[in-house]
């Protein structure tokens, strides 16, 4: 295939990737953006396959069939609540693939006794380093999200010194690979060392920061792919990896800003490691438990109602019930909106995805800056499984672990209804004074069951 045709196809695919990112920046155009991205990847893969400078077609077809079957099975079987874990795994597999491809290219160069190019050796070392960190770091993130390991950060004396030593070891291994590329064993040693660094870098991060970690690991997987693109001298891989790396870094910074924390604090702060604060003094004698019927009576006369979703809504799969309740309230003449915190849930845009799945109108989704001015004029705010993102301690207690973090000001609503299984703390491990506030009512129940009870009671009124 002529080089001009290949480069034109890669340019077209790159343009489609850019339009895809633009489309996925808004819920209304997200599906179209996703399709454009898939089309761009199809073109890139097809052109690369037709350019017969790689392995035989039989191996390519076998890989496509096997990968497609696994992907289709996962897409059908994975529940929406497990999507963050799925994203973490995909990030990890992307990093591993980049590192293995770079290693295979290095092995081929050694086998053919071809001269080593400095660009190739540097890119190979970087691909191994970033790919290994991404792979094992993503597996640790998966384990925390899937609760296979504790979501609390693993902190111990000297952990920062150990991390620094392993990071320096990885840097030395990178130099060794560049200086002695003909020693293939050095590359695999680098890959092993980078995997250890990935575990150490992630194990000390708490579950509350997993959305940021997933976003950062996504960026890492893009950077690993970009480095592998330089190894293979493949422009398409360089461009696609750069786009993923840049977009992941930008999203990570946005999320850190939403938490009022620096990226360094997320990575090295051990957030959530402190002992859980006692809530007895805050909650004792002040928590007001109510039933679905009592909440229905409140909603029957409400003029403006806000829904504040959190991970509890995802766990209970309550988004469809919530959409039904919202529609009922609108039919009764109430104004309804959904207040979305940037780090609610366990991955970027988690709540948006769940509500879009339930066909909640995009216009009703309000970001934090848009929602907060509406709360003082809101009759009832219904919090479903959210905790830290509505905790007033972020505003009132400078010693709190979440001090300064922008939150949704639901406590300024006339009445707050919190649907939660218990008074257990969120990922930050601290009590929430909102639960004991004078204008707060607690409905202790599973999210979906609670909403269905409210719907049933509202229908009978």
Structure notes:
- With 461 residues, this protein is an alpha/beta fold.
- The protein folds into two domains: 78-268, no CATH class; 280-459, Rossmann fold.
- 60% of the residues lie in helices and 7% in strands.
- It has a six-stranded parallel beta sheet.
- Strand 4, helix 17 and strand 5 form a beta-alpha-beta unit.
- The longest helix is centred in the N-terminal third of the chain and has 29 residues, at 83-111.
- The protein is globular, with a radius of gyration of 25 Å.
- The chain starts with a helix and ends with a helix.
- Residues 273-277 have low confidence and may be disordered.
Write the layout of secondary structure elements.
Blueprint: H1 3-23, H2 30-50, H3 57-77, H4 83-111, H5 118-145, H6 159-179, H7 184-203, H8 210-232, H9 235-258, H10 263-268, H11 280-283, H12 292-300, E1 304-309, H13 311-316, H14 319-331, E2 335-340, H15 350-357, E3 365-367, H16 368-371, E4 380-384, H17 393-396, E5 415-420, E6 440-444, H18 447-459
Parallel strand pairs: 1-2, 1-4, 2-3, 4-5, 5-6
